[in-house]
Specification:
Blueprint lengths: L1 H18 L5 H23 L10 H22 L4 H8 L2 H13 L5 H18 L9 H23 L5 H20 L11 H24 L2 H4 L6 H13 L5 H21 L9
Length: 281
Amino acid sequence: MMLLACLFFSLMDAVMKGLAADFAPMQVTALRAMSSLPLILVYVHWRRAWKSLWRVRWPLHLLRIGLGVLMLTLFIYAIKRLPLTEAYAIFYISPFAIAALSIPLLGEKVARASWIAIAVGLLGVLVVLKPTGEGLVSLAGLAILAAALCYAVSAISVRLLSRTDSAESMVWWSMAGIAVVAGLLALPEWLPVQRHHLFPLVALAVTGFFGQITITEAFRIAPAATVTPFEYSALAWALGLDVLIWQVVPESRVFIGAAIIVASGIYLARHEAGLPESERP
C-alpha cells in the first residue's frame, strides 16, 4: 500500500508543482482536496460505508484537517521553488519523527534494527542535502521541514483514529475539511480555473484519491515505524519526474544518497518480514 501511495503522490506532486505556477499555494491545496471529493463519494458508495462516515472522533479529525491544510500549503510553497528531488530529500526527516512519536503516543515498540535502518536512511538524506546542509537555509527548505513535522503528527493521528474509525471516514472528512478550510482561506485571492487546467485537475483528482486511499490503508494495517521506510521509494519517482518534466539532472551525490536511503528501506522490510539471517542482504 505504501509503495503504491508513493507512486500516486509523486505524480500528484508533479501536477501540483505545475498548478503552483498559476495559483497561490492555498488555492492549489483547496483544488487538490476539492478535486478528490467526487471520487471519494463513489468509493464510499461502492463500499456501502455511508453509516460509518458518522461514527467519528471529531477532535482527531479536526486536528488532521488543520494539519492537512498546513502541510499541503507549506509543501506546495516549497515545491514551487525547489526541485522535487531536493524537496523529497528534506521531507524524509519525517520518518524519524513518526518513529519517535509512535513510542509515547501509540505505545509501539521500535526494534533496534528499525532505528538503525531509519538512521542509515537519514544519513542518505544528509548526503543528498550536502554535508553543509545548505538546502535547509532557504524559506522553501524550512517550509518542507515544517510540512514534514505536520505529516508526522498526522500519520500518528491516523493510527489512533484507525482504532475506532473506518478508513472511509478518515479519507472523506480529511479531504472534505481541507477543501472547506483551504477554500475559505484562499477565497480572497482566488483565481478562476481556465480550460487548460481541466486535465491537470482530473489528474490531481485521480492521483490524490488513490494516494489517499493507499496511504490510509498502509498506516491502518501496520505499525508506523514499519510502514514509513517504504516512503523512500518516492525519491526514485522524484528523480525521474525532475529529469523528464523539468530537465533537472541531479548531481551524483543525489544518486549516492538515494542508494543509501533505498538500501535502508529494503533492509528494514526484510528484517520486519522475519527472514532468516542467511537470506538478508
